[in-house]
Amino acid sequence: MPEILTLPCIPLSEPTLTPNAWTYVKDALDSGWVSSVGPYVERFEREFARYFQVPRTAATINGTAALHIALLLANIQPGDEVIVPSLTFIASINVIRYVGAIPVFWDSQPDHWNADPALLESLITPKTKAILVVHLYGDAMDMGPVLEVARKYNLKVVEDAAEALGASWRGQPCGTIGDVGCLSFNGNKVLTTGGGGLIISKEPDLIERAHYLINQAKNDALTFTHDEIGHNYRLTNMQAALGVAQLENLPEFLEKRCQIWQRYQDAFTGHPLLINFGITEDTIRSSWLYGLAINSDSLPSHRDAMTMVNQLKQRNIQSRPFFKPGHLQKPFQSFVHTPLPNAAHWHRLGFNLPSSCSLSKQYQDHVIESVLEILQAWNSE
Fold first, then answer.
1. Residue 18, exposed/middle/buried by CB under 10 A (0-12, 13-18, 19+)?
2. What is the biggest distance separating any 2 CA atoms in the chain, rounded to whole angstroms?
3. What DSSP assignment string belongs to 254-289?
4. Buried b (16+ CB within 10 A) or exposed e, 32-65
5. Residues 6+ apart with CB under 8 A from 94
6. Consecutive H or E run containing 28
7. Are 305 and 321 within 8 A, CB to CB?
8. Which of 32, 145, 291, 379 is the most exposed place for a label (fewest CB within 10 A)?
9. Residue 159: in which H helix or E strand, if any?
10. Half-sphere exposure of 323 (CA within 13 A, CB side)
11. Domain of 373?
12. Is 7 within the bounds of a domain?
């Protein structure tokens, strides 16, 4: 224990850089191809197309850019309504406003952080044009009801799989189930390019258009002719070089996070002061971040996720509460028309624990022991 406590911090989720990361990035630097054109960008997109078994992908500068373009590919227009989970990272909601559309907030399940499929059809109006699904914290959403509602009402399905690389539903990788999917390669993700994203679709025409839009909608590179408003959302060759190296180790990264998830699950399952989240039927999780919640039925109201996060910080452990729901965020409060009690509930009580691939068993033990000791102290008050 004393040895661990001398650490500055046990991070929530840090990248694991393998030797080829240094090799490939140096190669990109030595070649002079450091911007948004170069062989590593093409290789990165090609190898991910092979991984997802799609004709082609489009790499972007970050996951938010990928989501923005995905809504454009879905032809979302100003005034259209897009259904989106309230409990998500704010980028999922921001991009809806980027295109002038209206977010319609979707509450979480009563026993899980993902959106509740049973509520989906009740949110449909004549203005609804798309469902933006979020596979939160790497847990795949139950896509069966989503696809059924989308077919019934002729809606587009955009998947925010930013946190779900490696997760799947009924054998289909998250990001390939709807019309278009998006990934993020931020520094804290399972696989990182430092900052980056990816657009995925089984429709080659959509990816062709994605490439057009992320490159300033350039019709002619020599004369700089543009027929539409485009965006400078391209991934750089240096970032792609890092991503190619990371992709080589993706199976090991996923396996390590799965082992950490299982170790936490074994340690905390059945604790009367905690709520565990199980695995949705027919899914495989990416185990990006392990999540727990405080059992509010067994504790006073002042014992919540932030209390746990602050007390873990005192033990040099970085954790964080679940995302603040979109319907509670100031920019979106004018779009809230119905209560969303479950999203607010999980935000107040849910928290994530360190899940880095590099997290040793010794440090895992420190996290587990710390959570249990804090709960024991609460229970003794």
1. middle
2. 74
3. HHHHHHHHHHHHHHHTT-TTEEE--PPTTEE----S
4. ebeebebebbebbbebbbeebebebbbbbbbbbb
5. 64
6. helix 19-31
7. yes
8. 32
9. strand 156-160
10. 21
11. 250-380
12. no
Give backbone dihedrals phi and psi of 50, rounded to 5 degrees, phi first.
-65, -40
Size of the chain in residues: 381
The CATH number of the domain holding residue 300 is: 3.90.1150.10
H helix or E strand, kind and range, residue 160: strand 156-160
Tokens of residue 199, six digits: 């657009």
* Gyration radius of the chain's alpha carbons: 21
Both tokens of residue 154? 């002729």
- Say how far apart CA 118 and CA 58 lie, in whole Å: 33
Structure tokens at 132: 């933006």
Contact criterion met (CB below 8 Å) for 28 and 38: yes
Exposure on the CB side of residue 162, measured as CA atoms within 13 A? 26
pLDDT tens-digit profile, the chain (381 residues):
444 445 569 999 999 998 999 999 999 999 988 888 889 999 999 999 999 999 999 999 999 999 999 999 999 999 999 999 999 999 999 999 999 999 999 999 999 999 999 999 999 999 999 999 999 999 999 999 999 999 999 999 999 999 999 999 999 999 999 999 999 999 999 999 999 999 999 999 999 999 999 999 998 878 899 999 999 999 999 999 999 999 999 999 999 999 999 999 999 999 999 999 988 889 999 999 999 999 988 878 789 999 999 999 999 999 999 999 999 999 999 999 889 999 999 999 999 999 999 999 999 999 999 999 999 999 887
Cβ atoms of 268 and 252 within 8 Å: the answer is no
Structure tokens at 135: 């596979």
Burial class of residue 238 (count of CB atoms within 10 Å of its CB; 0-12, 13-18, 19+): buried
Domain end residue (candidates: 216, 248, 280): 248
Nearest CA to 167 out of 53, 319, 280 is that of: 280
Q: 173 and 87 in one domain?
A: yes
Instruction: Read off the DSSP letter of residue 13.
Output: S
* Residue 365 and residue 311 share a domain: yes
Collapsing DSSP to helix, strand or coil, 110 comes out as coil
Helix axes 250-268, 237-248, angle to 10 degrees: 60
| Block residue for tokens 């002719």 | 225
* Cα–Cα distance measured from residue 28 to residue 284, given in angstroms and rounded to the nearest whole number: 35
